[in-house]
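Aggregate trends can hide what the representation actually does to any particular protein. In the encoding step, the backbone of a single protein was reduced to a row of integers, each denoting a local shape. The record that follows shows the chain in one-letter code together with its fold in token form.

***
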Amino acid sequence: MSYVLTTLTKKKEIDSIIRDTIDKVLVLRFGRASDPGCLHLDDLLSKSAREVSKFANIALVDIDSEDVQVYIKYFDISLIPSTIFFFNAHHMKMDSGTADHTKWIGAFHTKQDFIDVVEAIFRGAMKGKMIVNCPLPQERIPKYQLLYKDL
């Protein structure tokens, strides 16, 4: 069973979903509907939505919307899809052995991988943690070479 996920295109919509998601993990997928990697991830997210609904909400953010560029810059979204997690309006970070703990870059290999990550974030957040360890084995964590350029 798949769920239709909400697509956010306005800063105000993102602000309010971050503020109003209480005692659940908020999963925000930054990307574009035309990207094959995003489509693959969106399929996994929509198929997982019911199973995580007791402890997580999922929404999509359209990175081509002019109004959300402030978030694109703030979270340094340079590769898509990028997934960012919040709990009670706090940005949740995950140590997955990569250089960037602020977001998940790329798609998840399986629906269960996504569910395991969200459960780990939820359990950590309920204990007051702001950063959690990734529960997935290293071979299932996407690796990207992060290039830092002088702007």
